[in-house]
């Protein structure tokens, strides 16, 4: 009996040792593991943190971390969307530091970022703007061309309703050469022309995605077109609102349709106050959340769609208050 009991104890000890060895052998890192050693770390580099759109994206990224205790999300961004060197340094530091399991990057210069990530063996998620690289597992963002086209079609409809017989559109664009800006411009042009308007492409004003330069652009447009222009579309809401303010008091522009892009809180307030006509809304919060979620899935070996659409809509006076209430719930 003693020999049988000893043999049973020996067998149980061997099995326990085997189980412990299996449990410590590694494997996929999973969200919610609760172990600091197994914590999955995701680097997120934005185009900037200096606007509400990017603050919403940041909030979505950080919410994923709150919902998944086993994931650490490090979000950062340069001072502006023309701070190329600063973003380059951030990306280099995170990739070369080797402390992250995945990278989420919103590139200011897609080609440059493609070169930076060329040697990494960690998954990369492109955010907001795609990166032409085989290292990119998935692109999470707005279908910018489709969204801008939808907004442009609505703008032509509104311009006709406002009494414009000659429906012409001039764009106050963002950073020249930026892929997202180009996609939006293409969408605006297609939407305006397919709805029966004229897109004055050669008169496009580049304002580097900032409000101050948009004011200068709008002043130049008013000098060139003292008779007024039916539609002014902008690459973001800050520029659209700035353009509308610059045109305030000019009788020729009283019925101009000012179209922004992003659907941020200030735009909703401006639309409700009659200071901006409409905005093509990105779901920025969802974009940030889904991007980090995609990064975690990629680390754990899941197959992802090449493009994950975070959604879009057109904000008008009819739905601006509802959207405003939703956004306040994200970032106050």
Give an overview in words.
α4 links the parallel β3 (102-105) and β4. Residues 1-27 and 32-36 have low confidence and may be disordered. This protein starts with a helix and ends with a helix. 46% of the residues lie in helices and 17% in strands. It has 332 residues and is α/β, with parallel strands linked by helices. The strands form two sheets. Strands 6, 7, 8, 9, 10, 11 and 13 form a seven-stranded mixed sheet that branches.
Essential attributes:
11 helices; 6-stranded parallel beta sheet; 332 residues; alpha/beta; disordered N terminus; elongated; 17% strand; 46% helix; 7-stranded mixed beta sheet
Summarize the structure.
With 332 residues, the protein is an alpha/beta fold. Helices cover 46% and strands 17% of the residues.
């Amino acid at each position: 009996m003693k020999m049988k009991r000893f043999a049973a104890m020996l067998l149980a000890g061997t099995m326990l040792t085997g189980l412990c060895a299996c449990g410590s052998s590694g494997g996929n890192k999973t969200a919610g593991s609760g172990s600091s050693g197994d914590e999955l770390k995701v680097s997120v580099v934005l185009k900037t943190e200096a606007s509400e759109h990017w603050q919403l994206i940041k909030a979505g990224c950080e919410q994923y971390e709150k919902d998944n205790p086993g994931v650490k999300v490090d979000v950062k961004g340069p001072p502006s969307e023309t701070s190329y060197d600063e973003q380059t340094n951030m990306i280099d530091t995170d990739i070369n530091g080797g402390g992250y399991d995945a990278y989420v990057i919103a590139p200011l210069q897609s080609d440059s970022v493609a070169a930076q990530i060329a040697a990494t063996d960690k998954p990369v998620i492109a955010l907001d703007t795609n990166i032409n690289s085989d290292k990119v597992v998935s692109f999470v963002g707005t279908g910018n061309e489709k969204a801008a086209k939808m907004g442009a079609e609505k703008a032509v409809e509104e311009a006709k309703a406002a009494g414009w017989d000659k429906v012409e559109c001039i764009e106050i664009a963002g950073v020249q050469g930026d892929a997202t800006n180009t996609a939006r411009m293409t969408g605006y042009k297609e939407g305006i022309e397919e709805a029966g308007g004229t897109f004055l492409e050669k008169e496009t004003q580049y304002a580097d995605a900032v409000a101050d330069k948009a004011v200068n652009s709008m002043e130049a447009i008013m000098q060139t077109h003292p008779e007024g222009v039916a539609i002014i579309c902008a690459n973001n809401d800050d520029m659209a609102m700035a353009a509308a303010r610059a045109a305030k008091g000019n009788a020729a522009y009283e019925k101009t349709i000012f179209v922004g892009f992003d659907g941020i809180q200030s735009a909703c307030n401006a639309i409700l106050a009659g200071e901006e006509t409409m905005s093509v809304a990105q779901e920025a919060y969802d974009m940030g959340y889904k991007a980090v979620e995609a990064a975690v899935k990629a680390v754990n070996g899941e197959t992802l769609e090449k493009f994950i659409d975070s959604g879009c809509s057109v904000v008008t006076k009819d739905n601006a208050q509802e959207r405003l209430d939703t956004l306040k719930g994200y970032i106050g």
